[in-house]
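G., before I forget:
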Amino acid sequence: MTTLQSKLAEARSQGRAALIGYLPAGFPDVESSVRVVQAMVDGGCDVIEVGLPYSDPTMDGPTIQRAAGMALEAGTTPKDVLAVVRATAATGAAALVMSYWNPIERYGVEAFAADMADAGGSGVITPDLIPEEAGPWIAASDAAGLDRIFLVAPSSTDARLKLTCDASRGFVYAASLMGVTGTRAKVSGTAERLVERTREATRDSGLPVCVGLGISNGAQAAEVAAYADGVIVGAGFCQRVLDAPDLESGLDAVRAFAAELGEGVRAAAR
Amino acid sequence: MNTDAHPVPDYLGEGGHYGRFGGRFSPEALVAALDEVAAAWEEAKSDPAFQAELNTLLAEYTGRPSPLTDARNFSAHCGGARVLLKREDLNHTGSHKINNVLGQALLTKRMGKTRVIAETGAGQHGVATATACALMGLECVIYMGEEDTRRQALNVARMNMLGAEVVPVTIGSRTLKDAVNEAFRDWVANVDTTHYLLGTVAGPHPFPSMVRDLHYVIGAEAREQVLERTGALPDAVAACVGGGSNAIGVFAAFIPDESVRLYGFEAGGDGVGTGRHAASITGGSPGVFQGTRTFVLQDEYGQTVPSHSISAGLDYPAVGPEHAWLADSGRASYAAVTDAAAMEAFRLLCRTEGIIPAIESAHALAGAREIGAELGPDATILVSLSGRGDKDVNTAAAYFGLTGDEGERNR
């Protein structure tokens, strides 16, 4: 069982959703990103998605684009990302990587899977890789014992929900809305329906369904936690680091934000 | 002329794969829309009413078939080889881009969508898209890198006149690739009402094969015209390659003709050795970029490297996946043409034929000079003159020193 799987099982046994936080490695620089991750974990994140910054992030909105752009300007490499994964795993949280596909392919799919496992990572989220194109990744992640998280969307047909859930391990990432990453004033009404439909596809496997995109405060986290196995938050963490006058106050804000979200996932009626 | 044939090449595999290239590297959220476009295009291709409507537009609005011009004077600068120019520059809006745009705009209406988005670099595809949307009553939003909106202010004004909204893209390198990223972001959020009218043979399946189908008319016409004019097939076909839409269009009809050599000329910028170029096949490596697997300009970590070319239309850090396959299989040859060689060919065509070519197309002309020198005076070379150079007058005038004081001296 990967750390991710045990974290999700632990949250479930506590009658709550897991809290999953995203941060690009190297934002605002490699060392500081490790400290931000620690603050996220201290505040209550069960799982950390370590972002691999990429030059062409077509699924990200302005906040994460800016954060990942700063990480690239700071010279962040895939090796740095793996170092942040290692540091994340050392906090006790489950460590995932979230990456567009080309940097992993360039690194070497098998080599990346092996190095990821060696760093103590649990799995990888691949937002621009669909199962039909994932043959080498499915083989490599199986060989390395990594979880493999594909995405489903409100536009996914029932047949594609089944295909995607069957190819996933650890959890399946349900994109709450049709759009890019970023905070939203309201949780999309399509999210709950998507989770319901996805549960049909995971009825036999019991694969957890975690929801991301647009979740920006404790109340929204509670709303989503009422029907999802995990609540994924990214832009809100990045925004707090961007807005802070210095790193220390940024860490305080990140810790407080994680705690607010953590209260949300615990408050949810399930 | 037979313009309604869209033969499927035997190497196009399931899921839009060309050998190890192509495919669909897209967010799941877009898969339903891509499937919808693919299914709609498959239906439209075999619907005589759709084809008739498209062919009427191509004839009466675009002005097809485009002529074939014997470049008798320019020939002397091509080793004496006979050079036949396929005049896509004479199409409405000034380039081959209109072929694809009219087809996809009709398809947009067929799918019941009311809004079109598109990317543009220099503005040619944006102007063509704005034109088709004006004609068909579709809402039109064009994404354009902020740098490009400044360099191509006149084209921004043209698009505005045609009723399109031009959105400057202020993130990333603020050029064509970032405009494509932003169009994908818009599409995923507005896919119920919106079609993304992609301007080249790149992106996720079905775009490379659909855009190829819509430009097939270039090669189909040219093949008949060359046969009629010369009584034989050409020895070589030359085209410029950025994303590669005009090149695929002219190559496709000749791919089964094994005696015909196919040459794609990429933008070599300052020279492939300098790192300042846009030659993805010649100077790039296989990778995944903007929805497809193809040759990409990338660093050792898989980050996209900015491209450079004097020609905005070729200034793109990747290439359509079918070209990647044609290069891999050896059916077509690709080489880089520097800015300097392209501008010399540009100057020569202006002076010898009275035709101002697009700087993009000048790369194909420079390539034809090399092919002609190799094949000699008995050879016939078909060149895709993909666009006209009106849009490039400022760039060319600055390049040749025809502005300001120097311009006075050269008058």
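Residues 16-61+97-207 of chain B form a domain with the Rossmann fold fold (CATH 3.40.50.1100). Confidence is low (pLDDT under 50) at residues 406-411 of chain B.

More on Monday.
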